[in-house]
Amino acid sequence: MYSRNQTDDRLAQPVPADPRDMVLRTERVNVYYGDTLAVQEVSMDILKNSVTAFIGPSGCGKSTLIRCFNRLNELIDGCRVEGKVIYRGKDLYAAKIDPVAVRRRIGMVFQKPNPFPKSIYENIAYGARVVGFKGDMDELVERSLQRSGLWNEVKDKLKSSGLSLSGGQQQRLCIARAIALKPEVVLMDEPASALDPISTQRIEELIHELKQEYTIVIVTHNMQQAARVSDYTAFFNAEAGDNGKRFGYLVEYDRTEAIFESPQQSSTKEYVSGRFG
């Protein structure tokens, strides 16, 4: 499932047997903040209708990389991306690609729930209106809330503020808001780290359900969570460059059971066994 660079203890990625299984591909992606390298030469494929988890110690570039997939990094002053991020055969950083259109197809759920200061209904409907949705809005709102597992809890209070919900409910509302725009890929950056165990379990159950329709990439510091929810796992590590500043790189990427049960790289084994990180 992986190709290994014998001259470097860094690796590669699983290669799909059928190219049609590939939704996203990075080719030698480097990310800089100003002149400082943050992520070095990441090449990997993301497969459709799968959950891919990014794990690794703090500062190894997991969140930086995931934000490359829908061009959110370019909203940060001084950030630049080198290499290619390919979605359905098109380089997302090509000159004529509209980043707003990219974000419609590749949605994002952040670490801290961030519902709009609007009603539950408008949290879903607002984005749909912005992109010119012409269908039945009530149906869209209901369907999105059903898919996020929230409908039965909020169907009688759709006019209430989204901010009135619990933390776990707010995060599911944010997921409903993301999928209302009918993306193909949903990015999740530590989606359960601010939640209690019961809410975390519900988010994990939801991820399992959503992968039937969406491709999901999740950043998590919780290795048990990665093992529970993902089909593929990418382990990242970090090291200091010549300037003394740390940058992240991909160490190993394979099916989740292989990463946790029989990793090929020593640093992966040390990390998943809890010896560092």
From TrEMBL:
GO terms assigned for molecular function: ATP binding; ATP hydrolysis activity; phosphate transmembrane transporter activity
Matches recorded under InterPro entries: AAA+_ATPase, ABC_transporter-like_ATP-bd, ABC_transporter-like_CS, P-loop_NTPase, PstB-like
Key words, A-Z: ATP-binding, Nucleotide-binding, Transport
Residues annotated as domain ABC transporter: 24-263
GO cellular component: membrane
Transmembrane regions: none
GO biological process: phosphate ion transmembrane transport
PANTHER family (alphabetical): ABC TRANSPORTER I FAMILY MEMBER 17 (PTHR43423)
Annotated NCBIfam families: 3a0107s01c2
Name the UniProt record assigns to this protein: Phosphate ABC transporter ATP-binding protein
Species name: Scytonema millei VB511283
